[in-house]
Amino acid sequence: MLTAILTGLRDSRLVWDLLGPLYNHRIHHALHELFEHIARDLSLQGNAQVLDVGAGPGHLALRVAELHPSSTVTGVDFSPMQVRAARRLQRSREIGNCRFSKANAMHLPFDEARFDAVVSVGSIKHWPDPLQGIREMVRVLRPGGLLLVSETDREAAQDDLERFMERFTAWYLWNPLLLWGLRRIVFGQSFSEGQLMKLLERSGSREVQAHRLEGCPYVIVKARRG
C-alpha cells in the first residue's frame, strides 16, 4: 500500500510542480554523464529535427542543441513548472536552436514523421500508459529515424545504485531513506532492460538494441522507425 501511494505521488504533476526545483537542483549532477553520452550518441546529420519527450528542466535537450548547432531541438514536458525552468536555463545559456513547450506524451501535438530523432530519459515510468507514449514517439518519427529511450533499471546492481545515490547526498536527505526510496519507488517501479526492449518492439520499432553506460543504473534502448 505504501509503495503504491508513493509511486502515485512520484507520478503526480502537482508534486512535480511543487518539488521540481529541488529535483532540478540535483538531477544535472547525478545524470551529467548519461546526458553527455546520449547527446553525443545521436550522430545527427544536417538540419535535423530532434524531440525530447519529458524534457524536465531541459538539460539533455540543451546539450543536444549545443553539440548539434545546425539542428533544431524541441523539448516537451507535462509540468508547466518544468517548462518554465527549461526556458530560464535556455535564456541563461543563450542557446537559440532549442525551444520548450507543455505537452502530454500520450498525445504529442506534432504531425506524423516530423522528427529525425526522438528521445526520452527518465520519463516513461511516470506515464499512465508507457506503450501509448512510445507509440506516439514512433508516430512523430520519420521512417528510419532514431528512437532512444533511457529509464531507471529496476534490476540495477546495488553498487551502481549506491554510487548513484551519493550524487544526491545533501543535509536534508537521510541516506538510508533515500536508498530505500530509490530502490523501492524510483527504480523498483520502473523497467528492466528486457521490459524496455519489449515495449519498443511492441511499438512497431525495428533494430531494437540495448546498451549501458558503465556504472550508471539506467538502461538505454535504441531503435529505428520501420
What would you say the CATH architecture is?
Answer: 3-Layer(aba) Sandwich
- What do we call the CATH topology? Rossmann fold
Chain-averaged pLDDT: 84
**Residues in β-strands, percent:** 15-25%
Number of domains: 1
Q: Could you tell me the radius of gyration in angstroms?
A: 17 Å
Q: What is the CATH class name?
A: Alpha Beta
Number of helices: 8
Strand order across the biggest sheet? 3-2-1-4-5-7-6
Q: What overall form do the CA principal axes indicate? A: globular
Oligomer: single chain
- Class from helix and strand fractions: alpha/beta
Task: Kindly state the number of beta strands.
Answer: 7
Alpha-carbon distance between the two ends: 41 Å
Weakly predicted, low-confidence segments: none
CATH superfamily: Vaccinia Virus protein VP39
SSE ordering: HHEHEHEEHEHHHEE
Query: Percentage of helical residues?
Result: 40-55%
- Main beta-sheet strand count, sense and barrel state: 7 strands, mixed
Summarize this entry quickly.
The chain has a 7-stranded mixed sheet with strand order 3-2-1-4-5-7-6, with helices on both faces.
Walk me through the structure.
By secondary structure, this protein is α/β, with parallel strands linked by helices. It has one domain: 3-Layer(aba) Sandwich (Rossmann fold). It is 46% helix and 22% strand. The chain has 8 helices and 7 strands. The protein has helices at residues 2-10, 13-41, 59-67, 80-93, 130-139, 158-166, 175-187, 193-202; strands at 49-53, 72-77, 98-102, 115-121, 141-152, 205-211, 218-225. The chain has a 7-stranded mixed beta sheet with strand order 3-2-1-4-5-7-6, sandwiched between helices. Strand 2 (72-77), helix 4 and strand 3 (98-102) form a beta-alpha-beta unit. Helix 2 (13-41) runs parallel beside helix 3 (59-67), helix 2 (13-41) packs across helix 4 (80-93) and helix 6 packs across helix 7.
